Amino acid sequence: MSSAPSRSSADPVDDALTTAVAAVAARVARVGAANPVVIVDGRSGAGKSSLARRLVAAWPGRGRVQLIALDDLYPGWDGLSDGVAYARETVLVPHGRGLVGVWQRWDWELGQRAEAHAVDPSLPLVVEGAGLLTPEVARLADVTVWVEAPLPSRRARALDRDGDTYRPHWDRWARQEDAHIEAHGPAAAADVVARIP
Hints:
globular, two-stranded antiparallel sheet, alpha/beta
């Protein structure tokens, strides 16, 4: 029996995220571009944000990596598809054309767009959010990721994170995710499928 410490942590979610980040980072390294685009999709609470943050921290290249969460772009609780279209037009299309993109944060309390943010086309870009992996978006990405997790885990993580703010909207948001999955089959379209417990 070895006395060496196990490389596995006691947290299966942490282990799964570590494995997923390594797989995505390897795909990014194979792209070989200075400014690759990574798209991370998955249902609410699956672990998209955690994976995206860890990927940025473990980025296989040098320099700054831009990270955009669609939670800052969706125009309200019925805005999944509109938020994805907004991200595509204001962030991903300009980035792909070598142009500066500009997006405005959605202020959930005021129900309107707020301050503007620029996206540098010369820098790598990670965009994460539910509904993101559509055929139109996939054409603008270098690496696509689908994050899969069981419903009880997803729900617990999402409601632990957002609590009473999210609870009354869980079902209406899930219906929009269902429609996206039925229309676009994002898991089958992804370069990497990350399975998080």
